[in-house]
Design brief:
Aspartate Aminotransferase, domain 2; seven-stranded mixed β-sheet; Aspartate Aminotransferase, domain 1; alpha/beta; about 400 residues; binds pyridoxal-5'-phosphate; about 40% helix
């Protein structure tokens, strides 16, 4: 692997890999807990955890053991047959959320695609054709055509127009706008409890409660995209728990497999019946390996009450960010919940902050030009947070 070092990897990537990513100049070759090691042996504190997809930290022993054991037993048979870990993982998701049924996919976008289809089919089964999905500006739901169309970022649609019809967008956290847009033709309201990719903007409690009651009064389904907020990230197993509501459908991915690709959606008993044999499917979705990783991940999170730890460390991290905000004028705000947080900067320097932190061995994310996002492993310790924040503070002081 180290043959030729970093430059060789970079050259190969530039020559043979499609240029769809704006990469940072590091190639990691090993990870352990909250730490990553690059090809030259340098050590980095990972405060992004694979964009929230490695909640237990890198190469967590329980997940690694589960994957190894599964790989030695059977890896793939397809959904033509019963798959024990898929059934077990579905039960774990249902037991930790609400009564219903799960479908397994391979990514967040795929989970959302399935959820969008389920909503149309639910109304179809009731003898209605409801064409309209109501989504929020600023949202992110994926890169496939339908999820791109659901994503509330017009700049992302422009090069790919025409996008899929039927998606209507309303301003985020604007209850009146939601009320005006959702009608008897609306099949679903599709929202993130906290908009992650646009910069970590939480829904207000009033907004999600209103979304629930608007859906109830119009017959639309409420879908919550918990691809980023789910699996204990916000200090509750699912972010909807902060809001005192239940969705009809919830989508999951990222943290569910601790780095192994997996996506899922759960539909409540009210609507889970809608998708029938032949309506939806996936060759790899719900496979043995991914579900074994999912079971090990959830077992650890539930068994260790990791949500308590997330709330404790998240509060400490928030307080540290508050202190930084008081001391460094360029920091103008803090947003988020649990261990999904962002710092608002007065200037568009977040990329420079990320690059400088990386040089000093700490990984943070420039979620937008003026916001730095932190999504550390949920297992991060107070000492590790202090170390990471110390470096971020040093960089912010120097930069700004
Ligand atoms: C809220 C949300 N939904 C969907 C997605 C898409 O997930 P994936 O990249 O696994 O397709 C993401 C990815 O960042 C996300 O944050």
């Amino acid at each position: 692997m180290s043959d030729g070092g970093f430059e060789r990897i970079k050259d190969l990537d530039e020559q043979y890999v499609m240029r769809t990513y704006r990469r940072l100049p590091v190639a990691f070759v090993r990870g352990s807990g909250c730490w990553l090691y690059d090809i030259s042996g340098n050590k980095y504190l990972d405060m992004v955890s694979g964009l929230g997809a490695v909640p237990l930290g890198h190469c967590h022993q329980d997940v690694t053991e589960a994957i190894k054991k599964q790989a030695e037993t059977v890896i793939h048979t397809t959904n033509l047959f019963y798959i024990e870990p898929q059934a077990e993982l579905a039960k774990m998701i249902v037991d930790s959320s609400f009564p219903g049924k799960c479908f397994f996919a391979n990514s967040g976008a795929e989970a959302n695609e399935g959820a969008l289809k389920l909503c149309r089919k639910y109304h179809f089964e009731k003898g209605q054709t409801r064409e309209k999905y109501v989504c929020a500006y600023g949202s992110f739901h994926g890169r496939t055509f339908a999820t791109l169309s659901a994503t509330g970022q017009p700049a992302k649609w422009d090069p790919f127009k025409p996008v899929v019809p039927g998606f209507h967008h309303v301003p985020w956290n604007d209850t009146d706008a939601l009320e005006r847009e959702v009608d008897a033709d609306t099949c679903a309201v599709f929202l993130e409890p906290i908009q992650g990719e646009s910069g970590v903007y939480p829904a207000t409690v009033e907004y999600l409660k209103a979304a629930r009651s608007i859906c109830d009064s119009t017959g639309a389904l409420l879908v919550l995209d918990e691809v980023q907020t789910g699996i204990a990230r916000t200090g509750k197993m699912f972010a909807y728990e902060h809001y005192g509501i239940l969705p009809d459908v919830m989508t999951l991915a990222k943290g569910l497999g601790n780095g192994v690709p997996i996506g899922a959606f759960i539909a409540s008993e009210k609507c889970a019946f809608a998708l029938k044999a032949g309506d939806h499917g996936s060759t790899f979705g719900g496979g043995f390996l991914a579900c074994a990783a999912g079971i090990a991940t959830l077992n650890y999170i539930i068994g260790k009450n990791l949500t308590d730890h997330v709330r404790e460390v998240g509060t400490f991290l928030w307080d540290e960010l508050e202190r930084i905000k008081r001391e460094i004028p360029v920091v103008t705000g803090i947003r988020g919940l649990g261990l999904m947080l962002a710092l608002q900067l007065e200037m568009e320097v977040s990329r420079e902050v990320v690059v400088e932190c990386l040089k000093r061995g700490v990984i943070v994310n420039d979620v937008n030009p003026s916001s730095v996002r932190l999504l550390p492993p949920l297992t991060i310790t107070l000492e590790e947070v202090s170390h990471g924040i110390g470096i971020l503070e040093e960089v912010l002081k120097k930069k700004c």
